[in-house]
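Protocol step 6 of 9: fold each sequence in the batch and record its structure tokens directly after the sequence line. For illustration, a two-sequence batch is reproduced in full.

Sequence one:
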Amino acid sequence: MADAETRPGEHRPIRSFVLREGRMTEGQRQALEQLWPRFGVDFNGKPLDLPALFGNSRPVYLEIGFGNGDALAQRAAQYPEYNHLGIEVHRPGVGHLLHLIEQQELDNVRVLREDAAEILRDGLTTDSLQGLYLFFPDPWPKKKHHKRRIVQSAFVARLAELIRAGGTVHMATDWAEYAQHMLNTLAANDAFENSAPDGGFLPRPDDRPLTRFERRGQRLGHGSWDLLFRRR
């Protein structure tokens, strides 16, 4: 039987993620059921009307793979003058973020549970974003799996279309080789310029919350690398 998202004779799309559905708490489950109609976005394959989605025309920042949503919620509370759109495929994380949205009374967050590649391709229009956040994506460390990494030249080229002039791309990883790959791939696109004076990495900015995942990595002795590029 053909994959549900492919037609006979077509290749199955390469995913940058593996869907591992962890255990959901009752609170996460209730948040999904009760709050999704208000803050969730059901994608129908057509470009999103972001002003209609948020009820205003404030600049929009997109975070891909927000995990449990703690960092996104903190940033949304810190910067109420911006709208924040999050993409995550794992239901427990989505449920947790929805709970935080209600708990903190955040009206500037909307959530998608979709493949980010499809949203970037079909769901967003030119110059519709003020910036993008991508923190600790799967590094796919084995060389044969590098094609699954989300950060590729085509990905960066699409960001150059979606992010308006002066907007930013902020990425972070705790995998040194992937960090260098990210740096090289962003630097190779003339639409972006590196905000680091030496053309390399930056210390973690104060407005990037330290994630639970990152704290665990620090306890294990892992490093982390931040990149901040600006759209010319």
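Sequence two, same batch, same settings:
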Amino acid sequence: MRDEGGYTLIELLTVLVIFGIVSTALTGLFVSATQAEVSSNRRFQAQQNARLALDKLRREVHCASTATVTGGSLVTLTLPNSTCRGYPQVSWCAVGSGTRYALYRNMGATCSAAGTKYVDYLTSNALFAYVSPTTEVLARLSVSFPVNTKPSEAEEAYSLSDQLTLRNSSRL
């Protein structure tokens, strides 16, 4: 029986311990990579939604004849029917609290979370500022979308800003 080949219990346990250590390291690597991919995808989606919302808002602001900003978190645009199709008034507002807000678009002069959500993970509700028209320039709407899916990590922050002109407004 001594001449028969085989593995001893010690050899078998040693292989199992080595296999366990390698498996644990690989599992940790895969979990970390999956979490990084999910975080990256969430960041990309939030940034893309901010770009699309700014594009939609830009088109509506260019058509608007007047804009009313309330508290920096709500803007109501009056759209003349002769030049722009759609509803005569459109409102955009930030709804949320703390460090997470979402941007909603509603038909009419009031705005709430019942409207269409365009952007999530905004870190502030101070999104809009109105610049009055002068004799030289038309009215403008200053827009800033600070997006961060992890507000505790400042390096993940993304900010999208623009000055939009109300082309149908009148100079003073």
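Proceed to step 7 once all outputs are recorded. Observation for sequence two: The mean pLDDT is 90.
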